[in-house]
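Action item from last week, closing it out:
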Amino acid sequence: MKTPDRLRPWVAIAVGGILAGVIGGSMVRLLDWVQVLAYGLNAASLLLEIEQASSLRRVLAPTLGGLLVGLGWWALSRRGDTPSVDDLRATTPARTPLWRPMADGLLQTALVGAGASLGREGAPRLAAAAVGARLATRLGLEAAQARTIVAGAAGAGLTAAYNVPLAGVIFGVGLTRRWREPGVWTQCLAISLIATVVAWPLIGTQPTYVYPVNVSLDITTLGWAVAAIPCCALVGIGFRSLSVRARSFASGGRLRSVPLWPVWTIGVAGALTGMASVWLPMLPGNGKDMMQAAFEAGAPAQGFAILLLAKPLATAFYLACGARGGLLTPSLSTGAALGVVAAWAASGAGLGADPAVFALLASAGTLAVTQQSPLLAAVMAWELTHAPIWTLPLLFVVAFGSWALGSGRMER
């Protein structure tokens, strides 16, 4: 029995949301399993696993992980390029391969689990988008509708990985660039909410970060909301420029003529990251532990000053070596490091700054510039933490201000 035409988009939304939730939640569990395998301890965080691992294991885990994942990407490249989310949207409706995006997503997840300085959201976004594209094609949706489903599914993959349904909606609508169409918002919201609920048994219902409950609004925080704008714009521009140039270098063909180039290059990136982790245990991984430590004031400000430079450099080096992955949490954690350093400087001047609030605002501002999406940055920073509601206006001010200033500088 054929599905009526008017119901087909809603069938794609329902099934796509369910599958995106399963994909996102499963990849989070896979990430945890790889971390345990790599560092030999099932702890509450990657940071604890690294701190309790031997120096040799800290080096071997990301090195071997890089070699194995690089081998997997080399094998995939022998059969053609792996499509991106944008590629999937551009070619839908059409016959969409599933195994290549799924394999690429699993490799991305494994690499981050082994300690790579990359975001974990790229994998579920890509895999969920591929599923959405296949559903849209099988159901015979017309082109514009099919591309909305792909975008919504990609946003739902982000949702399921971080438990951020509103950020997932904004990401999906942003891919379509159809901001003024209520129907697009409705469909992306439906997919995102379904994925959120489906992923809860796998990732839980709590926000990703534990944010202090005793933070309060004061004049120093208001001052930082203004001062953070040029600081975040500068850091965001630097991070984005490094990432763009690194990806351009990786795709430029300079290394591709070398046999098995992604194997040894990503292995080298892992080895350098592992050696650095002996002194900077917060450097490996996507940056989640950096964010949490910033909110808890769990590390010296001098360490965050080093990470403010080291995190973008490590991420860019992985990208230059041919690794694939997201940039959301590395951007957020770099901004958080900026906030801690600024709070340390303000406290030294006798202003009594709260590192948690400074870190939260700076993370949103930096992400707004690196992703060129201030709305996504402000909403995601809040959803990840469930910070007090009074932080929302400040998050919007910092995100939109940093984006406006940073975008103007990059255009020049």
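Closing note: Residues 48 and 204 are 20 Å apart (CA to CA).
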